Amino acid sequence: MNTLLAVTGSQVSSAWKLIYHFLRFAAGVGIAGGVIVLLRQAWSRGGSVISGPVNELRARMPAGARIPLIALAIAAAYLLPMWDGLPFVGSDRVDVVALLCQTVVPFVIIALGLNIVVGMAGLLDLGYVGFYAVGAYTVGILTSKHASLPWLVSVPIAVAVTMLFGVLLGAPTLRLRGDYLAIVTLGFGEIIRLSAQNFGWLGAAEGVSAIKRPPSLGFDAYSAGQNKWYWVIGLTLILVVMFFLTRLEKSRVGRAWTAIREDEDAAELMGVPSFTFKLWAFAIGAAVGGLAGAWYAGQLTTIYPNGFDINKSILFLAAVVLGGLGNKWGALLGGVAVAYLPERFRFIDDKRFVLFGVVLIVMMIFRPQGLLPRRSGGDSAAGRRRLKGLEKNLPVGTTGGSK
Amino acid sequence: MSTPILEVDNVTMRFGGVTALVDVDFNINRGEILGLIGPNGAGKTTCFNVMTGVYRATSGQVRFKGEPLGERKRFEITRLGIARTFQNIRLFPEMTALENVMVGADTHHKTSVVAALLHLPIHKQEEKEGRERSMELLEFMGIADRAHELARNLPYGYQRRLEISRALATKPELLCLDEPAAGFNPAEKEDLMGLIRQIRDQGYTVLLIEHDMRLVMGVTDRIVVLEFGKKIAEGSPAEIQNDPRVVEAYLGAPDDAESSLVDEEAGV
Predict the structure, then answer these.
(1) Residues of A with CB below 8 A from B191's CB?
(2) Is the CB of residue A299 less than 8 Å from the CB of residue A307?
(3) How many angstroms separate the CA atoms of A46 and B194, rounded?
(4) Contact predicate A58/A46, CB 8 Å
(5) What is the side-by-side order of every strand in the sheet holding B4-15?
């Protein structure tokens, strides 16, 4: 899955090596986390409050600084593979750029999509891998197995097909709540995998191979330059998804989803057509999952049914929970962490998943709300500013409680 | 008074063996404040639930502006113009006060996912209007100073007022308040009475469930009394105060143990 670079020849004792790797890793995470917090802080205009210090910083930020900051952060993200120090966050056995394209990009997109369903609308979906598979297989079928469309053309089709699957799954099952919905979606994920495994038309156990890759810029296939170019496309996809999710989040759609999550009956009595909005959450979440699958198929060029098992669903969910349910910045961070951590610790082989499990358990004990939780509550500085602006337009003396 | 805005026609509501409402029959006139009172477990909240589509009446029907509510869904009834608050506060705790009210204001908005994705002008217009209207409502209820705090962090009195703001944001013609003064001190109750009158003066019809007799007698135009799911009296506050059956219902044999059971079956 990852390009393995040369194994180090040095015979440093393994304990020191572990400590060394940990330190390097901690520095890497610190940098990545800092970049994400900065980007987030520049991006959002208040409203969604995350933590005090970040917020205060934003309040003190000059009004004109927002746009340049966003531009700077995005440019930095695009130029990430150009940075020679990048192996700093990687290890000598992992090609970081390939890792970014093949694992981080799909995980981040999928975490963003799942965050809509689980984090915002509060619908526990344990079969999200099903949508990932549908997206990947649609691209596989259209570019290799049964047709030979270019990858770029197959992607919108894959997204549309996955969205349709979201509606097909959602329409009959969204009347269920909580655990019941979780069980049904779990079944859906397995149905998709087993179908792929058993239908010859879908490649059965051999899967689909020779899937077309995203358009190249004239680089040699699998060259370093090619991977850097793919990072540009992948990052663009992430930014586009985030852009549209922000729009939804700040509209009545986001409010309806949150209201449904908080108290579905009260929401319904306040005029929210909850079924419609739950179905939208499912459809949009599925579409984003399909996009992630389409990207994944284009990167790996070969997909197997076993790559879409239940463990993947759990891992996706872990990404969203780890990052912070209901916060797209949390989903972004969680997606990066869950894609990156196991690869980063490849040098301790299978023990890395034990380590990952320990990290998750520690998180759940000490920070159950996730790395970047939804909101810490309290009055945001940006909110106060907005309030001041509104007060000017209000007639004076309309306070209640007279008499 | 004028024409009835809501007619409750011989409504009976059964839950298995428990009959929560028996042939309840009354009207609410446009522009009045109607009090719905009765001892615990009398079926007041059940009555609310039938009117707002949470339950379907076992027999009988509810007509709003002359039209039977029939099989309408809860959000459709809200759109028609009936809004309510809850006996036990049910805000959206992880949303700010302003967002809570904006959810109510969204009831009549036409744009949805596609318009939001494309930021169509009509969508932006609706968002702006909804936000401004919600802010005005918070201002009207006297809680605008904490508009950007999460609902769960608001003090109790603010939460009660926020529920009313949220209900008003759905532009109701009939506003149903389920024990809005529960847990209030006398001064706060006094304030609330003023607010309810103001709400009525703005053209809303108000249905009020309340235990506090002073508040009910002071603010309502008419009162309907329920006991054990039956309507036992209807009339002006003065008439109700002197009605021997009402006095008996309130001061008669203690029936707490029995009625709390019914309350559990029938309550929200």
Answers:
(1) 400-401, 403
(2) no
(3) 35
(4) yes
(5) B18-29, B4-15, B59-64, B67-68
ipTM value of the model? Answer: 0.88
> What DSSP line would sit under A283-305, residue for residue?
HHHHHHHHHHHHHHHHHHS-B-G
What distance in Å separates residue B225's CA from the closest CA in chain A? 25
Contact B95 A393 (CB under 8 A): no
Nearest to A262 among B73, B92, B191 (CB): B92
* Token pair listed for A271: 């005029």
What is the C-alpha to C-alpha distance for residues A198 and A180, in angstroms, rounded to an integer?
27
Burial of B131 (0-12, 13-18, 19+ CB in 10 A): middle
For residues A316 and A358, the answer to whether their CB atoms sit within 8 Å is: no
The partner residue sitting opposite A271, judged by closest CB among B78, B90, B143, is B78
Amino acid at B95: M
C-alpha A313/C-alpha A160 separation (Å) is 21
Q: Which of B25, B4, B9, B29 is nearest to B221 (CA)?
A: B29
DSSP state of A115: I
Beta bridge partners of A208: A303
Cα distances from B85 to residues A24, A330, B91, in angstroms, run 56, 34, 9
Helix axis angle for A310-323 and A178-198, nearest 10°, is 140
CB-CB neighbors (< 8 A) of A403 in chain B: 190-191, 193-194, 197-198
pLDDT at A282: 95
Which SS3 state, helix, strand or coil, does residue B127 take?
helix
Cα separation, B168 vs B265, in Å, equals 29
Using CA atoms, how far apart are residues B93 and B90, in angstroms rounded to an integer?
8
Q: What are phi and psi of B178, to 5 degrees?
A: -100, 100
For residues B12 and B22, give the distance between their C-alpha atoms in angstroms, rounded to a whole number.
5
Chain A residue with minimum CA distance to B88: A266
Q: What is the pTM (predicted TM-score) of this model? A: 0.83
Give the mean pLDDT of chain B. 89
Q: What is the pLDDT of residues B159-201, one digit of tens each?
A: 999 999 999 999 999 999 999 998 899 999 999 999 999 999 9
